[in-house]
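LAB NOTEBOOK - FOLDING QUEUE
OPERATOR: T.R.
BATCH SIZE: 2
PURPOSE: Compare the predicted structure-token outputs for two unrelated chains run back to back under identical settings.
PRIORITY: normal
REVIEWER: second-year student, initials M.K.

ITEM 1
FIELD SEQUENCE / FIELD STRUCTURE:
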Amino acid sequence: MAESSGIVLVLYVVGLIAIMYFLFIRPQKNEEKRTKAMLADLEVGDYIVTTSGFYGSLIAVEEDTVVVEFGNNRNCRISMKKSAIAQVEKNQE
């Protein structure tokens, strides 16, 4: 009887680990892949939203940084890391 309860305990632990993998780890890895692909496809003219909620358009794209133009009068340009970009809307031109 003690052997069967040990086997059941091991099955519960394995089941719990499998559930945690499918609920937490796998979706996080998929999100990381999506974010890397989004940042790799950045182009000049794309309209972005930063992680802090600012909207702007890209005017320069470098390896790790981008230059973003903010505001209606187009005179506010800020250099920032690519990782600060939350969403990208492709240029429709």
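ITEM 2
FIELD SEQUENCE / FIELD STRUCTURE:
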Amino acid sequence: MSEKRVDKYNRYRCVNVGFRLSPEEAEELNVKVALSGLSKRDYIVDCLLKHEIRVVCGINVARAMKKYLEAILKELQHTAEGAVPKEELLTSLQHVLEILERAED
């Protein structure tokens, strides 16, 4: 039998939890995970267990932030003047702004 794998806190994790998301929800989750600097598993566990999510700024977070801000800018440039941007775009922008506000503290 193979050896049990444990995390850095010596916890053995053998329970799987699965759930379904819409494509829009999955994209929003992917944006939040990329901007957090955590693995997807760590991000979801922290959110579900009500732990505070702290973004650790590094080169990967900065690249993800730049990527999503460029995508938001491109989408806004294609939006007709006076038109309301898509809800998903505004949600992503709001999340990026929340991270930047917390970084200033």
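REVIEWER COMMENT (ITEM 2): The chain has a mean pLDDT of 80.
FOLLOW-UP: none requested
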